C-alpha cells in the first residue's frame, strides 16, 4: 500500500473520525466503543475500521473483552490500535528525513549537542512569540497537541496524598532521528519544549524517558523535587 | 542475576574520558546520578550483571583504560532490554548531558557482543572487543546499536570462544549485584 493511498483512505469524514479516535486512545479499541465515539452505527463503524486496517493505518486483532474464556465466553471481539508505520506524502517530492539523518549524524560526530540545543531553545521561544510562559498544564496540553505530541494527563508515580499530575506524550514528532541518535535528538526536543513553554513560568519540561513515549514530561514547577 | 531462557546474553562496554576528576564540583551532577541510575539498571527488565569494583557501589574507581577513563561493563538478556534502559529510562538524562562531563570520542566508545548465558566478561575481554571494533569495524564479534548482529549470527563466534580462563573464573566467582551502569 502506497502512502498516498493509505492517506487517501482518510478522506471519508466518518473514517477519519474513527481513525482519530482510535489513535488518541493509545490502547486497543473495540467496535462498539469506536462507533459510539464517532456517532455512527456499529456495522458502519466496523466497515470503516476494517478498511483502515486494510490500508495499514490501523492494526486489528481479536480479544475477549469480557475476560471470560472457554465455552460460553462468546466470540472474541475485534479490537483496533494505530499502526506504528509512518505515512507521509509530499508534493512535489521532498526528502527532509534523509537531510535530518545526515545532519544529525554529522552533529553527533562533531559533538554539537550544545549548539543544537541552543538553536532548539531559540526556535521554541520564537514559536511562543511574545506570549508569557505557558500558564498551566491545560495550556501546555493545547500547545503540545498543536505540535503533534499527543499529550495526555497522568498522576505522577511515587507521590503520596494528592497525586501530582504530569503531562506525558504518546508521540515523538522526531521519532526516526530520535531512535538513531537518542541523546542528541532527545536533548534537542527537551530544549525546544523548554523554549516553547518557558523555563521560569508555572510549568516546566523535564526529561523522564519511558519505552514507547516521548522522552519529556511537563509538570507544575512547584513540584520540583530535584 | 535473572534466570533466563536465552542461550546468549548481550555484553556491553563503554568508555568515557572524564573532563574533570570525579571529585570536581563540575562533575557533581553526574556523580549524584550514579546511584539512582545504577539502581534503575539493576531493576531494569532484562538486566543480568554489571561490573563493580570490589567494595564499591560501581565501577567508576576502576581505570583499566586510562587514568581519566571510566568504564561501564554490563550484560543483558537482549539488545532491546539494553536499548530501553540506555535510552528510555532515567539513564537518558545522563546521556543528554554527556558533553558537560566527558570528552568527545573520535573512536568508537561503545561495543556490544554476544556471550554464552552465564558468562561474565572480564575487563580485558571487553577492551579487546572494543579494540576489535575500532580496528575492523562492526562484525558479529564486536558491534554497535546502529550495526547490530543477532545472537544467532553471534553463535558461530560463540562456539569458537575458548573456555573461561582461570582469571575469568576468579572474577565470575564474585559476581556483584550492580556496578557502573551509567553508560555514556
Features:
heterodimer; A: 226 residues; alpha+beta; Arc Repressor Mutant, subunit A; Muramoyl-pentapeptide Carboxypeptidase, domain 2; 2 domains; four-stranded antiparallel sheet; three-stranded antiparallel sheet; 7 strands; 46% helix; globular; B: 184 residues; Alpha-Beta Plaits; disordered C terminus
Structure explained in plain terms:
- Chain A has two domains: 3-82, Winged helix-like DNA-binding domain superfamily/Winged helix DNA-binding domain (Arc Repressor Mutant, subunit A, Orthogonal Bundle), CATH 1.10.10; 96-223, Muramoyl-pentapeptide Carboxypeptidase, domain 2 (2-Layer Sandwich), CATH 3.30.1380.
- Chain A contains nine helices and seven strands; from the N terminus they run ααβααββαααββααββ.
- Chain A has helices at 3-8, 13-25, 31-38, 42-54, 96-110, 113-128, 137-146, 175-180, 182-197, and strands spanning 29-30, 58-63, 77-82, 151-155, 165-169, 203-207, 216-220.
- By secondary structure, chain B is an alpha+beta fold.
- Chain B has helices at 28-43, 79-87, 91-96, 98-101, 123-136, 151-160, 166-172, and strands spanning 8-17, 47-50, 69-76, 110-116.
- The longest helix of chain B is centred in the first third of the chain and has 16 residues, at 28-43.
- The two termini of chain B are 23 Å apart.
- The relative contact order of chain B is 0.25.
- The chains are: A alpha+beta (226), B alpha+beta (184).
- The interface between A and B is medium-sized, with 17 and 14 residues.
Amino acid at each position: 500500500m502506497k502512502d498516498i493511498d493509505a492517506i487517501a483512505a482518510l478522506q471519508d469524514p466518518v473514517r477519519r473520525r474513527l481513525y482519530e479516535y482510535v489513535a488518541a486512545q493509545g490502547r486497543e479499541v473495540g467496535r462498539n466503543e469506536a462507533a459510539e465515539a464517532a456517532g455512527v452505527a456499529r456495522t458502519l463503524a466496523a466497515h470503516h475500521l476494517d478498511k483502515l486496517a486494510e490500508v495499514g493505518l490501523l492494526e486489528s486483532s481479536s480479544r475477549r473483552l469480557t475476560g471470560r474464556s472457554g465455552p460460553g465466553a462468546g466470540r472474541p471481539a475485534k479490537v483496533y490500535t494505530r499502526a506504528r508505520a509512518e505515512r507521509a506524502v509530499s508534493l512535489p517530492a521532498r526528502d527532509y528525513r534523509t537531510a535530518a539523518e545526515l545532519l544529525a549524524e554529522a552533529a553527533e560526530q562533531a559533538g554539537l549537542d550544545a549548539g543544537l540545543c541552543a538553536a532548539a531553545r531559540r526556535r521554541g521561544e520564537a514559536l511562543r512569540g511574545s506570549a508569557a510562559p505557558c500558564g498551566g498544564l491545560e495550556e501546555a496540553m493545547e500547545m503540545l497537541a498543536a505540535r503533534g505530541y499527543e499529550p495526555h494527563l497522568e498522576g505522577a508515580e511515587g507521590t503520596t496524598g494528592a497525586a501530582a499530575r504530569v503531562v506525558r506524550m504518546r508521540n515523538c514528532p522526531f521519532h526516526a532521528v530520535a531512535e538513531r541518535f537518542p541523546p542528541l535528538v532527545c536533548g534537542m526536543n527537551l530544549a525546544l519544549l523548554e523554549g516553547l513553554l518557558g523555563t521560569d513560568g508555572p510549568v516546566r519540561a523535564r526529561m523522564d524517558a519511558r519505552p514507547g513515549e516521548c522522552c519529556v514530561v511537563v509538570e507544575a514547577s512547584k513540584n520540583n523535587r530535584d | 542475576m535473572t534466570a533466563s531462557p536465552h542461550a546468549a546474553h548481550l555484553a556491553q562496554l563503554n568508555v568515557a574520558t572524564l573532563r574533570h576528576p570525579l571529585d570536581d564540583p563540575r562533575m557533581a551532577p553526574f556523580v549524584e546520578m550514579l546511584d539512582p541510575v545504577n539502581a534503575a539498571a539493576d531493576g531494569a527488565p532484562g538486566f543480568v550483571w554489571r561490573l563493580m569494583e570490589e567494595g564499591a557501589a560501581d565501577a567508576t574507581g576502576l581505570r583499566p583504560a586510562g587514568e581519566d577513563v571510566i568504564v561501564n561493563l554490563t550484560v543483558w538478556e537482549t539488545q532491546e532490554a539494553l536499548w530501553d534502559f540506555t535510552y528510555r529510562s532515567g539513564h537518558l538524562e545522563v546521556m543528554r548531558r554527556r558533553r558537560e562531563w566527558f570528552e568527545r570520542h573520535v573512536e568508537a566508545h561503545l561495543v556490544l557482543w554476544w556471550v554464552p548465558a552465564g558468562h561474565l566478561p572480564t575487563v580485558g575481554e571487553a577492551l579487546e572487543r572494543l579494540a576489535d571494533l575500532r580496528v575492523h569495524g562492526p562484525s558479529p564479534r564486536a558491534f554497535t546499536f546502529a550495526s547490530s548482529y543477532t545472537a544467532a549470527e553471534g553463535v558461530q563466534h560463540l562456539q569458537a570462544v575458548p573456555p573461561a580462563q582461570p582469571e575469568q573464573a576468579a572474577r565470575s566467582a564474585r559476581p556483584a549485584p550492580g556496578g557502573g551502569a551509567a553508560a555514556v
